Amino acid sequence: MTSLPLSQDLIAEANSRDMVALDEDYAALGRKLSRTGIDIDAIKERVASFSVAVPSWGAGRGGTRFAKFPIAGEPTNIHEKLEDCAVINQLSRVTPRVSPHFPWDKVSDFAALREEAAELGLGWDAVNSNTFQDQVGQAHTYANGSLSSQDAGARAQAVEHNIECIEIGQKLGSTDLTVWVGDGTNFPGQQDFARSLDRYLDAASEIYAALPGDWRMLLEHKMFEPAFYSTVISDWGSSILAAQELGPKAKCLVDLGHHAPNVNIEQIVARLHRFGKLGGFHFNDSKYGDDDLDSGSINPHQLFLVFNELIEAELNPRDGFNPSYMIDQSHNVTDPIESMLSSAEAITQCYAKAALVDREALHGAQEANDTMMAFQALRRAYNVDVAPILAKARVEAGGAIDVLAVYRTSMWRDRKGQERKAVGLGAGIV
Ligand code: LRH
Ligand code: MN
């Protein structure tokens, strides 16, 4: 039996004020779409079955190496993070899973944590290992790398940690392990590119061997940071080669912020899918580096083009096409709940717009080299305001029409500010 954090009456009462306007907007959009042969209810059903996971580490304020500015009432442990993730899902009805990070979310009883999440209406997505920070009392430092370290002790320790994350994930009901390693160098000559990759592959193959039958290992590439001269798994090329080397259960995870500015990420998505290696996403946005800004806040058109490739992929599924959709953001200046509500909306909007593309018109124009009409097939869909479709799907699932307004009316953060202990000043991601 679930016990959701907000009063459902508060949501229903707010919706009752917005329902007439929503019905009008939905009906008008329905008439407009039916003129081009699109059934709005069919799009609403697709939106209703769409979901994206939230990162446990995104529920708290994030920071940079310079500083982190906590807010009163932000979560201080996984239990409070789950409460906040449940608020996001209760209002949006599109974020029913949490992606945890270990050891940040470590507890003594994972079966109890699974039950606690289930009572809040939440399940679990990919588990994330962490071999980019040293823990107190750790035998081998990761200062010179983890899975690719020249120190066999550090590699074995990193493999053991990843296998522990799989065991934790099994207790939570997860079936994916995300492996991002910050391994790399800051100086030319510091490490040999080939030998460090071979060490990574050897160690990663030990993790791969420990994967249960229905599990996947998602390799997350990143161009730079924390290493600033070279990174062992720096781009989709290194990632797909490593995934092909490891085996069919190894896939590639695309974090939108892990590429050089202006890289054509939607083409990377198409390439990874073509070779059956598209495993998942970390959605966020960026202008310069791995800024971890809110999804769709800087370049919503790119997010739309990524989903356009994902809809094409859905139509031409390759081996085990089942990408894991997750948000990975750092909320340095907003209320994390508001940012994840806004991001979940932006991501779902891009999925809905991509579902509106007239594929027949697009493919026909492509085959005919009618460049303008091919572009217009995408642009027409991108220009549709799909907000009424998302709101209708939300209301029918028990969510709020105006998620941010209801969240603010709930005074959730202020109430938690009274209950939760204050988070100290600091720096860094968590
Ligand atoms: C690395 C990354 C990775 C996580 C971390 C929190 O930049 O994107 O996915 O482990 O952020
Ligand atoms: Mn990421």
Furnish the topology, listing elements before pairings.
Blueprint: H1 8-34, H2 40-48, E1 54-55, H3 78-92, E2 97-99, H4 110-119, E3 123-124, E4 127-128, H5 152-172, E5 176-179, E6 184-185, H6 193-209, E7 216-220, E8 230-231, H7 236-246, E9 250-255, H8 265-274, E10 278-283, H9 300-315, E11 324-327, H10 336-355, H11 359-367, H12 371-382, H13 387-396, H14 403-410, H15 412-419
Parallel strand pairs: 1-2, 2-3, 4-5, 5-7, 7-9, 9-10, 10-11
Antiparallel strand pairs: 6-8
Helix pairs in contact: 1-13, 2-10, 2-13, 3-10, 5-6, 8-9, 9-10, 11-12
Manganese (II) ion (MN) is lined by residues 220, 255, 282, 328.
Description:
The chain is an alpha/beta fold and 430 residues long. The protein has helices at 8-34, 40-48, 78-92, 110-119, 152-172, 193-209, 236-246, 265-274, 300-315, 336-355, 359-367, 371-382, 387-396, 403-410, 412-419; strands spanning 54-55, 97-99, 123-124, 127-128, 176-179, 184-185, 216-220, 230-231, 250-255, 278-283, 324-327. Strands 4-5-7-9-10-11 form a 6-stranded parallel β-sheet. It has a 3-stranded parallel β-sheet with strand order 1-2-3, covered by helices on one side. Strands 6-8 form a two-stranded antiparallel ribbon. The chain is built from 15 helices and 11 strands. α2 packs across α10 (336-355) and α5 (152-172) packs parallel to α6 (193-209). The longest helix is centred in the first third of the chain and has 27 residues, at 8-34. The mean pLDDT is 97. The protein starts with 7 loop residues before the first helix and ends in an 11-residue tail after the last helix. The protein binds 6-deoxy-beta-L-fructofuranose and manganese (II) ion.
